[in-house]
Amino acid sequence: MRIVVALTGASGQIYGIRLLEYLSKTDIETHLVISPAAKENIEIETEYSVEYVESLADFCYDYMDFTAPIASGSFKHDGMIVIPCSIKTASAIANSLNYNLIIRAADVTLKERRKLVLVVRETPLHSGHLRMLAKLSDLGAIVYPPVPAFYSKPKSLDDIVNHTVGRALDLLGVENNLYKPWMGRESISEKEFNL
Description:
Blueprint: E1 2-7, H1 13-24, E2 29-34, H2 36-45, H3 50-55, E3 59-61, E4 80-85, H4 87-94, H5 101-111, E5 116-120, H6 127-139, E6 142-143, H7 157-171
Parallel strand pairs: 1-2, 1-4, 2-3, 4-5, 5-6
Helix pairs in contact: 1-7, 4-5, 4-6
């Protein structure tokens, strides 16, 4: 399996880092692009270095390298994820404004009818954002905001991050054990729900 991963300048760099950490322990081939704003946010939001994050991928590309394999639809892969995805990047993808490698790779992913998961990290959303996200969905992208779930009773920030990343991996068809899926109310006692 081969996955394209992009990190853009939205808050929530830990989502992309955790996804790369998980994939680095599998035999899935990863192709990574990190935007300049994401590189800044990695340093602002986390204890990780950009070099560490890049070391988690099998292949890394410069943000402006349009000669990279992932810039072409003839490069076969099993899906692309932009995690986190800024509104600026989402808007550029929605409008095919291929001014950097991330947007170009997403554009060819859509035109080749491959999976594109956008972990859009923005709130609140105005009507322009909502129309643009609906347009992305119409184009075939999966818009997946990192909204935490609480049915698994997370005990830490890691639990919340892992749940979001695990669900995102599910959307790409990557089996994982990062979170406990909902198995119905019967699997949770009333005491656990404080009823």
